[in-house]
Each structure stands twice: as structure tokens, then as C-alpha cells.
Design goal:
Number of domains: 1
Shape: globular
Order of helices and strands: EEHHEEEEHHHHEEHHHEHEHEEEEEEEHH
Strand content: 15-25%
CATH architecture: 4-Layer Sandwich
Distance between the termini: 39 Å
CATH superfamily: Chorismate synthase AroC
Structural class: alpha+beta
Number of strands: 17
Mean pLDDT: 89
Number of helices: 13
CATH topology: Chorismate synthase, AroC fold
Length: 405
């Protein structure tokens, strides 16, 4: 049993749509939670006026009855309210004058415009930029919210914190991969992890406002942490079954992300072997229900492509957004001349906090997929019994071992 999902839709089209299949029957769907996740994606310092136009709400149209999954594919729709202002330009049906009013022949530097135009043989960049837009991640967040609901039923929680913001601003003084020893109570950790204090908010605001005044944009570094992930997700068997490889693939698929790190990642390159690995200790680990624990979590919760019971720690680097003012120099594909494209496309100064929510969603989807592959089950009852048996076996071994010591 596995999860499969697909999204579709353009930035200024009628709607975004998504389908996800593979969830068991009997999973309770919290609609308020899904919409609160969508609201989180629209918040953050440095967002554009587009966020005031849209007020995203997910409409589930299949796969759920009376607030509970029924085992069939779940289809979701999110309306694009701004479509009314683009109805002619983005019309699905033929519009005679559309070529005269809608052609976008100035591929924007730093965007996917020109690469996409060359790939599909286009002379209009709009057919590329509409799907490449970060707007499309709203649906990723919606289906990711369902994955979160599934994981939370088994005690796994996902959150994020900002590590760096802008070219110089360090938000978190210590960005080491967290271990079970650092987290404590999962629910309390979820509520408090990553919260910015007043001083940090003021610093970020200054960085964003300075960039806005200069017509510039800023990026940042984000750490996503999944707490209380059961050991045994993923596999050593094949490269594409390794959990770290799958998470890296998912994270790099988020628009604007240019690098990814699992655990201590790059720092481990500069360590000696004696300090680069997590040593074991005899101590009961209440999260993974093991009779042993690790003193550190440099591996970021994954060893050999398999989750080891420590928190999954993933770090992502987001580049500054490509749309700046005035626009960067480009070319006009119709006249084959160098031009500075006209402004006009709305853009954020920063979308780091929004990207953090999207990153949580893709991590949740990959972990939920790995969870379904390991535990299977057609109903939530089936899954609960499988998880209980597996974790009970681990805890039973833990109890015997702790008693012996």
C-alpha cells in the first residue's frame, strides 16, 4: 500500500486541483486544520498583495463522507479568486484577440520562462510561468495537511524553524539536528518550536523593508523537524527507496529551493570519523520505544536510508525570489533584441516563511507514504493494529532489556 498524489492548475487559472490516493478508510478529516495550514502558507513578512486577494479554502469533492475518508481517492479544489481579473487572458476556450493582449515575449531572468519556452517550442512565456509559479504550492499544502492528520494519529508531529534570513541575519544561534533528548513532550514541542521572539521579528522586518525599498528580494535557510517518527521507514534495498533520498527529492521540488541537507549534513564533511557519528547509550527512549538511545542526532534521524527513531531533521536553502524591481535585463524573443522587461507581475519580497509551510507538507507526504508502505492496511483499524504490534514488539524488547540492566 502506498500514497500517490498529483496536483494541477495555473497561478491565474480558475482553480488549483489535487488528487491523493492511498489513505485508509476511517481517517477523520479536520477541515479547519487544512484551511489553517493554507492560511499559514499565505502569512509571513514580505508577502505581496496577492495574499490579500486570495483567501484559500480547500473544497474536498471526493473520497470523504461525513468527515471521514472512505478509502477512495481524495480530490481537492482551491478556487483562484484572482481569476476574475484574468478571465480572458487565461480562458480555456479560444479567444480571438488573446494573442494580441496576452503574449509575454520577455522571459524573466532567474525564472523558468526561457527554459520552458525552449522545451515546449513556445513564443509566449505565460504558458510556462503560470505553472512554475509558487501559487501552485497551495495545493501541495492542502494534500500535505491530510498527510499530517494521518501522521498525527500515530503521534508524529512536524514543524519548522528559520535558521537564516537574508544575506546576513542569523535567526537561530544553534541549528544542530535535534534529538529525542532535546524535544521532550511532543505536543508541547509542536506548539513552541520555531516561534520567533520580538527581537527576531523586528530584525526580519528591517531586512525585508530594506530589500523592498531597494526593489530587491531575500532568501533564507529553513529546518524542518519531524518528531516521534517510528524506526523502520524507508529501505536500504534500492537507491530510490532510501528515505533520505526521497526527502531530498521532495524538498528540491519546492520552488526556489536550491540545496538540501539531512542531519548535520555538510558539517560532517569537516569532522573526523570519531565525532561525526551518533553513539549509542543504554537508556529508555520513550519516543521510539527502544531500550537504547543516541547521545546525538547528527544523522538527522536516518541511517542507511531507514528512519532510526530519532527526529527527522531536514534543512533547505531558498534562493532570493527572481522578480525584482526594476526587472533584470532580458531578451525579446519576438524581436530578438535585448530589453528590460516591463514590470507588472506581483511578487513577494520574501516567501521564506511560506516556503517553510510547503516544506513541512512535502516532508509529511513522504513520511506518510513510507508509513503506508511499512504498515499497510485498508482501514485505520488495520493500520493501528499493525503499528501497535510493531511498536509493542519494540517496547517489549525494551522492557526486558531495561529490567535486565
Amino acid at each position: 500500500m502506498t500514497l500517490r498524489w498529483m496536483t494541477a492548475g495555473e497561478s491565474h487559472g480558475p482553480a488549483l486541483v489535487g488528487i491523493i490516493s492511498g489513505f485508509p478508510a476511517g481517517l477523520e478529516i479536520d477541515f479547519d486544520f487544512i484551511n489553517s495550514e493554507l492560511a499559514r502558507r499565505q502569512q509571513g513578512i514580505g508577502r505581496s498583495e496577492r495574499q490579500q486577494i486570495e483567501s484559500d479554502r480547500a473544497e474536498i469533492i471526493t473520497g470523504v463522507r461525513s468527515g471521514v475518508t472512505i478509502g477512495s481517492p481524495i480530490a481537492i479544489r482551491i478556487e483562484n479568486r484572482d481569476f476574475e481579473n484574468w478571465r480572458d487572458i487565461m480562458s480555456v476556450e479560444s479567444v480571438e484577440y488573446i494573442k494580441e493582449i496576452a503574449g509575454y515575449t520577455f522571459p524573466r531572468s532567474g525564472h523558468a520562462d526561457l527554459a520552458g519556452m525552449l522545451k515546449w517550442g513556445l513564443n509566449d512565456a505565460r504558458n510556462v510561468l503560470e505553472r512554475a509559479s509558487g501559487r501552485t504550492t497551495a495545493m501541495t499544502v492542502a494534500i500535505g495537511a491530510i498527510a499530517k492528520l494521518y501522521l498525527m494519529k500515530f503521534g508524529t508531529y512536524i514543524s519548522n524553524r528559520l535558521i537564516e534570513y537574508g544575506p546576513e541575519l542569523l535567526v537561530v544561534d544553534e541549528d544542530k539536528p535535534l534529538s529525542n533528548r532535546d524535544i521532550g513532550d511532543g505536543q508541547e514541542w509542536l506548539q513552541n518550536f520555531g516561534k520567533l521572539n520580538t527581537e527576531q521579528v523586528e530584525k526580519i522586518t528591517r531586512v525585508v523593508e530594506n530589500a523592498r525599498e531597494a526593489g530587491d528580494t531575500v532568501g533564507g535557510v529553513i529546518q524542518v523537524v519531524a518528531a516521534a517518527v517510528p524506526p523502520g521507514l524507508g529501505s536500504i534495498a534500492m537507491p530510490d527507496e532510501r528515505l533520505d533520498a526521497r526527502l531530498a527529492f521532495a524538498v528540491m521540488g519546492v520552488p526556489g529551493i536550491k540545496a538540501v541537507e539531512i542531519g548535520a549534513g555538510m558539517d560532517q564533511t569537516y569532522m573526523g570519523g570519531k565525532e561525526a557519528h551518533d553513539e549509542y547509550a543504554i537508556a529508555h527512549d520513550p519516543f521510539a520505544k527502544k531500550w537504547y538511545s543516541r547521545m546525538t542526532n547528527l544523522a538527522g534521524g536516518i541511517e542507511g536510508g531507514i528512519s532510526n527513531g530519532e527526529p527527522i531533521c531536514v534543512k533547505a536553502w531558498m534562493k532570493p525570489l527572481s522578480t525584482v524591481k526594476p526587472p533584470l535585463m532580458s531578451i525579446d524573443v519576438s524581436s530578438r533584441s535585448a530589453v528590460q522587461p516591463p514590470g507588472g507581475e506581483r511578487s513577494d519580497v520574501s516567501a521564506v516563511e511560506s516556503a517553510a509551510v510547503v516544506l513541512e507538507a512535502v516532508v509529511a507526504l513522504e513520511l506518510a507514504k513510507a508509513h503506508r508502505e511499512k504498515f499497510g492496511g485498508d482501514s485505520m483499524g488495520d493500520v493501528e493494529r499493525a503499528v501497535e504490534g510493531y511498536m509493542g514488539w519494540i517496547e517489549g524488547v525494551a522492557g526486558e532489556s531495561v529490567d535486565d540492566n
